[in-house]
Amino acid sequence: MGYFTSSYIREKIEKTNLFKHVKVKRESDAINVLAEILVCRKEVSYRTPTGELVIDLLCGDIPIEVEYKKRPFEGFQQAIAYIVLAGFKKSMVIHIFPFYDKYFVKAFCNIVFFLRNIGIDGLIIVSDTGEVVEC
Fold it and tell me: What predicted TM-score, i.e. pTM, was given to this entire model?
């Protein structure tokens, strides 16, 4: 995944501590904070033969779908579309959740483990603490 691996992203987030200082109240807040930390382009329109995709974050050649307070399976359809329809080799889903929930983490990571073989990775950011959970 180039240098935008889940480990790289975790290190950048933990190093800046920005999630501990900026209150995230909605998905657009999370996208703005991540774009600043990772120095990524945000809300990038991408044409495909079947229509337009809007990529939440484009970090180098890695499209990232960001979800805020959603169910653990949400966002993966976009990540799949980035690979299948837009031709990216890898993609990622980042979920921002206000608190640590072991059931959410287990469900999310089970999906990530299943999809890694097609190039999809993911991580969870606990917005209240700034903790980053890698699968």
Answer: 0.92
